[in-house]
Amino acid sequence: MSFKDPSSLKIKEYTIPFLDDRSDEMVVALVGDLHIGPITSEKQIGFLKTGLKKIKPDVILLQGDLIDSPEFLDEPKYFRKTKQVLKFLSELAPTVTVFGNHDLFISTRKNRTRSEKPIIPEGTFEKWEAIFKETGVKLLKDEWFTLGDLRVFGFFQDKVCFEKDGKTGENYQEMRKKLKKLAETGKLETKPGKFNWFFSHAPIHELVKMKELRGFEAFSFGHTHGGCVPRGVDAIVDKFGLHGGLIAPTKGFFPREQIRGMEILPNRARLIVTSGLSGVTATALKPLQYLNFLKSAEITKITIKGI
To answer: What is the CATH number of the domain that holds 246?
Structure first.
């Protein structure tokens, strides 16, 4: 155990029953917050590869923050590592991703207090486009991906969604406006008899209850890393439905924005937040970011039965 590496490496497994039993079950692997760069070790990358081989997923959903900062796209070491990891994933199973804030913006890495306006370095989108083309990973920007009876919608949280009061932070008001607009244009239209899955990087929190999203059977997110100060005994407290970290700076105690695990919403849809591969370093303020040893790195396995 070290301050850099998480205290444990685990595969968290959940099952979602589906009303339609026409075909065999499907396995979805959720991989969140790789943060390829100085804060993610070879131990975590090795766990990612062996864990996914064990799971044998039909599809892999990357929940964003593939790299720790877009500046690392200009560093050959991390540029190569990003391509190697993504190529491994896409060769193992069809792999789709959404952008996370660390994939595009530099402010959250340079200033933990989130006092900077988010900035996207010039050429960032072009570099990612080249990476996705070479590795075969499919980027979803407000669009659908279909595999059999599984339909996945990837929500693009653009600059407006990650800017609040001129600073970096989740702007739920702008997310709501964008979701309404997507619904008005028909882009969020779900299909009866299919398993409709919505995923993005940062949890859209209470927005999952919007009438425009009622047709989705599942929602999945990353970003929170299990709460900025995980309890370190998550396997136990999960049994009691306590899904968040103990505390998150500016969010208070047991913050709802920092949830993890799977919950069942009132309409029976599933809400899944994966803690991801990286530790708390990427989300916590000093000195809390050094409490990485309390954090488990995880891959989340979702088995959809009767799909």
So the answer is: 3.60.21.10
For residue 198, what are its two tokens? Answer: 């919505």
* Tokens found for residue 306: 């009767």
Count up the domains in the chain and report the number.
1
* E strand residue ranges, the chain: 8-17, 26-31, 59-62, 95-97, 138-139, 143-147, 150-154, 163-164, 167-168, 195-199, 218-221, 247-248, 252-253, 261-264, 270-273, 296-305
Q: Is 119 exposed, middle or buried (0-12, 13-18, 19+ CB in 10 A)?
A: middle
- Write down the pTM of the prediction: 0.89
Query: How does pLDDT run across 28-55, given as a tens digit for each residue?
Result: 999 999 999 887 888 889 999 999 999 9
pLDDT per residue over 229-264, tens digit each?
555 555 555 566 555 666 665 566 666 666 678 888
